[in-house]
Structures are given as C-alpha cells and as structure tokens.
Design brief:
The chain has 442 residues and is mostly helical. 80% of the residues lie in helices and 0% in strands. Helix 7 runs antiparallel to helix 16. It is globular, with a radius of gyration of 23 Å.
Length: 442
C-alpha cells in the first residue's frame, strides 16, 4: 500500500507543470520540510551543545588564538585528536546522567570513597571560582573594545546571569544558553575575513605536523586542558538529569552531545585559522582581547568586531555554566535539592553556591589583579581535577552495575581508555611543568 502511494506521488510529481499550483505546493512543501528540520535541531539541542560550547570560554579563546598567532596552522591536526577525546568523554557523562538519573558527583559519592569525592570537589570549587573570574573579566574586556567600561558591563552581566538562573526555569535558561551559543558563529566569519590559505589549512588539518619544541608541547597540553575541562562533564550529566532526559530520550541526547562536541571544536578550529591567517608568526597572545586588537590592522575592523562579539557570548555562557556545574556537583555530593527550576527556599545550597560564585567572580574581575597569574593557578587546579574526574567517569561507564545494558562496549571501552589516559597524562604534565616553572626549573 505504502509503495503504491509513493509511486503515485512520484508520477504526480513528474506530471506537474513547471509553474502553477503544483509548483507552489512543492515550494511550500520544501519550506515546511526545512522548518521541520530546524525544529528538530532545536528540539535536540540542549545540555550537550551548551556544555561543549561553554568550554570555548575566555581562557579557551585566548589559548586557541595564541596557537594560531604563534604556530600558524600547526595545531589544527591536534584539534582533530582532541575532538575525538571530547566526544568520548562528553558522551559517557551524558549517558551516565540519562540512564541513572543522577549527576556525576552523586554517582561518585555512591560508588567511591567520601575522601576521594571531597578531594576532587574541593579542588573543583577553587578552580571553577578562578574560571568564573576570568569569564567576567572576558565580558569586561570585550565590551571595552566597543568603548564601554567594565565597571558598567560586569555588574550588569552578573545581575543578568543571576536573575536568569534564580528566577527562570531550566527550559528558559537553556533557551538563553543556546541563544548565546549563536555568538560563536562570528568566528567562522572572522576566519574568512583573514583570507587564509585553505589548501594549507586542509593539509595541516588532515596530516600531523608536530614540533618537538617545549613551547609546542606546552601549547598542546594547554589546548587539551582548555578543551576538555571537568566542569563540562559535570554540567553535562547534571543538566541531562535536570532536563528530565531518561533512557528513552537518550538516543536524541546522544546526537546533541556528539554534535555539540564537534561543533564546539570546529569553532576552536576556526579561531586558530582566523588568527593564523591574520597574525600567524607574531608570537604568543595573553588574552582574547589582545587577539581581537591584533586582528584589526590585518583583517580589518569587522574581524575585531566579530571577535569581540564572540568573546561576549562565550564569556556570558561560561559565566553561567561554570558556577552551575560547581553548584550541581556539591549539591549532588551532599544529596540536597538541585535544579534551576527550583526557588531559593527549595534549593538554598544549590542556588546559594551559584550566587556566591557569581558575586565573587564579578567582584574580583573588577579589582586590578594579575589575571594571568590567576589563570595559571586555575590551570594547575584543573590539572589536578581532570585526571580524577575522567577516571571516575571511565570506571562508572564501564560498570554494568551502574549502567546495565548501556555499559561501554568492548571497542568503545578501549577507545575511551586511551583517550582518558592521554588527557590525564597531559593534565599531570601541565601541573608538573607549571610547578617546576615556579622554582625556575625549565
């Protein structure tokens, strides 16, 4: 029956004239089909896309821009490998949340010792507060590109983020986070304005071009550290639970998580391309603002404008997601109410922690502190937390007692093990090299 209907429809389509009602119906049908596809993307997009995009924060943009300005296109192949690792880790964290109905911190508390959980979450809290400071500093720096004082924009941004989380529902907050994610589309346009050599871009993306210099190795470590951060996995699993995603909805969430990781790293790839094409070979950069200013003489004011707009969206998104990931984790570990959809009296610890982080982050960002020193210290703490968190995720995803039939398969287990081992090793290397640097040992 279905086949005959399909054949009949095909015959009618062939008999339809090039103009007239039939053609108008076909055009309208295409329009409806496009709208359905857009609505499908909107329906699927959620925690996975938001968590991955939050990794492209102010510190991340500075690192990617510095990779392009210092080593041109050499780091593009590294980003391909990092993307594989990010997809694997984010997928496991989302699967754990969807199948168990619990966030990572709650699962770690149940499956491992309280001492290990306390160590990981204590370092996470301190590291994330440092990251929140950098996000509000990024917002202030971006608006200063447009001549607006940080003493105006940082407090306003802090109030806006606080109001969004405390007085909105999870669904409403998610829509705003997804809207902020659109700001990342500024970077592909900025890359085009830099007129890169696309043949060289493609070659360096497809083939490895590694340097054995200490500087390049440190850059690779920094790229891994800024792309695969513990707060991303903690937020991803917790947001999946907060959204009410269960085993039945997980196939769609898996698409969101994998696509989100790929999209986020594609944006990182474009940032490297943009800066490599415009200012490649000029040396390292210390901030995303510095990258935006450096682009103006070469790629024009439009590139600077786009870089600034992308920095505003990126910093605002991470300025909400990072403190939320901390609040989710600590509330889960203690076993108290945690949800963006709850009011303050229903989830005082969860929302109180979020409020405190936003206040501290915005206040410190307005004080003339050395943000580079702060970021280095934050990176060290991230380097401590990352291996612990990733090993927890891998062990949990391998346990049939936790995931049942959704446990890691044989091939996935090997790939995930290699990815986690490499990322953990790079994180430990970053800590060791940074600490040695404090004592003047290079």
């Amino acid at each position: 029956m279905g086949r005959h209907l399909a054949e009949s429809s095909a015959e009618q389509a062939l008999d339809t004239p090039a103009s007239g009602p039939g053609r108008r119906q076909k055009v309208a049908g295409r329009g409806r089909s496009l709208r359905r596809r857009v609505m499908l993307v909107v329906a699927i997009a959620g925690p996975g896309l938001i968590a991955a995009n939050a990794g492209n924060d102010a510190g991340g943009i500075a690192t990617y821009a510095s990779a392009g300005s210092q080593y041109r296109y050499d780091a593009l192949f590294v980003m391909v490998l990092i993307t594989v690792g990010l997809v694997v880790v984010q997928e496991m964290s989302a699967r754990l949340g969807a199948i168990t109905g619990k966030g990572l911190a709650a699962l770690i508390r149940e499956e491992f010792s309280i001492r290990m959980t306390s160590l990981a979450l204590g370092a996470l809290l301190v590291a994330n507060v440092g990251i929140v400071v950098s996000e509000f500093a990024g917002i202030g720096a971006a608006f200063e590109l447009f001549g607006v004082s940080r003493y105006v924009t940082v407090p306003l941004a802090a109030v806006a983020i606080w109001v969004l989380v405390l007085f909105g529902s999870y669904r409403y907050a998610e829509r705003v986070f997804l809207l902020l994610s659109l700001a990342f589309l500024a970077y592909p346009i900025a890359a085009g304005l830099g007129h890169p050599n696309w043949a060289q871009v493609g070659l360096h993306t497809a083939l490895p071009d590694f340097s054995t210099s200490k500087g390049f190795i440190l850059l690779v470590v920094a790229l891994i550290g800024t792309t695969i951060s513990p707060y991303m996995q903690l937020y991803n699993a917790a947001a999946v639970v907060d959204r009410g995603i269960g085993p039945e909805e997980y196939p769609a969430e898996r698409v969101d998580t994998v696509a989100g990781a790929i999209f986020a790293d594609l944006i990182s790839w474009f940032i490297i391309v943009a800066t490599a094409a415009a200012i490649g070979g000029t040396g390292a950069l210390s901030s995303a603002k510095e990258a935006a200013i450096a682009l103006r003489p070469v790629a024009g004011p439009a590139a600077e404008l786009l870089f600034g707009l992308g920095l505003i969206g990126a910093s605002a998104l991470a300025g909400a997601v990072v403190p939320l990931s901390t609040s989710y984790a600590l509330a889960e570990a203690i076993g108290v109410e945690r949800s963006v959809s709850r009011r303050f009296r229903e989830a005082p610890l969860f929302l109180g922690l979020f409020t405190a982080q936003v206040v501290i982050g915005a206040a410190v960002a307005l004080v003339p502190v050395n943000l580079i020193t702060l970021l280095i210290g934050t990176q060290v703490l991230q380097g401590v937390v990352t291996p612990i968190t990733l090993v927890f995720i891998l062990v949990l995803a391998n346990r049939r007692s936790v995931l049942g039939a959704f446990v890691n398969g044989r091939i996935f287990k090997v790939v995930a093990g290699i990815a986690v081992a490499l990322v953990a090793a790079m994180a430990v290397l970053l800590v060791v090299l940074t600490v040695l640097g404090w004592f003047g040992i290079s």
